Amino acid sequence: MLSNFLVGIREGLEAALIVGILIAYIVKVGNRKHLAAVWAGVAAALAVSFATGGFLAFTSAELSERGEQLFAGTTSLLAVGLVTWMVFWMKSAARGLREELHGKVSTALTTGPITLALAAFFAVVREGLETSVFAYANFRTATSNSAPALGLTIGLVSAVALGWLIYRRAITINLSKFFTITGVALVVIAAGVLAYGVHEFQELGWFPGEGAYAWNITAWMAPDSIAATFLQGTLGFRTKFTWVELLVWGAFLALILPIYLRKSGKGAAKPAVAVAK
């Protein structure tokens, strides 16, 4: 639940801020009649994102056992790649995000509502597709579907509420710190998803060490217990963890976290000004 909540609020807030930037600029230049095009693009992006999540769920359900293992392992690796790229992209692009989107909207306003709708669509669909793939991978690692679904829903709703409050200037938060903290949390979660993908490939016989456990505590901690679910949702640890999984998990964190936390020479990004009107 916690991992999908973080995915929902992180990705959802990014999308909400992007929509807020687009709307604020259109209102500022006095072209409110084009707001419908923005919302049409946003709606299309959401439809594609939900369809992607449904496709992933349907496809995995129709596969054989080995096919499902291959599909789960592959989508886990894809999800790790997407979320890692996303947290680094947001860190580097946040500083100039408003200016970049303003330029795109300015150009779109001169060419018509279809171009504006496409600009909104492509700005939002990236976040939606990343959310669909990574949330699906998290669902695969969970022992039940209800808690992850609830966490994702709460995260998305919270993100929309925060985005609206920021747009209305009802609240002010340090988005730079928010995205840094949630970025670290998502990198840790991604390490657990990566370990799960390795586990699937071990079951396929593609990776060695399937029966060589670093720990196996299922005798005194049930995989669906609250403690096990918490550890799995936050750190990616399961009650049975092979040495290969542990090595991959630790290597990923040792490589990615120092690079992500390294300060930029140009100073920290400040996305908090992104929706200023």
The major beta sheet can be summarized as:
2 strands, antiparallel
Tell me the domain tally. 1
End-to-end C-alpha gap: 35 Å
Kindly estimate the percentage of residues that lie in beta strands according to DSSP: under 5%
Structural class: mainly alpha
Give a count of the beta strands, DSSP E runs of length 2 or more: 2
Overall mean pLDDT stands at: 81
Instruction: Give the radius of gyration.
Output: 20 Å
Give the fraction of residues assigned to helices.
Answer: over 70%
User: What is the global morphology?
Assistant: elongated
- Low-confidence segments: 265-277
Element string (H = helix, E = strand): HHHHHHHEHEH
Number of helices: 9
Strand arrangement in the largest pleated sheet: 1-2
Short structural description:
The chain is mainly α and 277 residues long. 75% of the residues lie in helices and 3% in strands.
Task: Please characterize this protein's 3D structure.
The protein has helices spanning 2-28, 35-62, 65-93, 97-111, 113-141, 146-167, 175-204, 226-234, 243-261; strands at residues 213-216, 240-242. By secondary structure, the chain is mainly alpha-helical. It has one domain. It has a two-stranded antiparallel sheet. The longest helix has 30 residues, at 175-204. The protein is elongated and about 65 Å long. Residues 265-277 have low confidence and may be disordered.
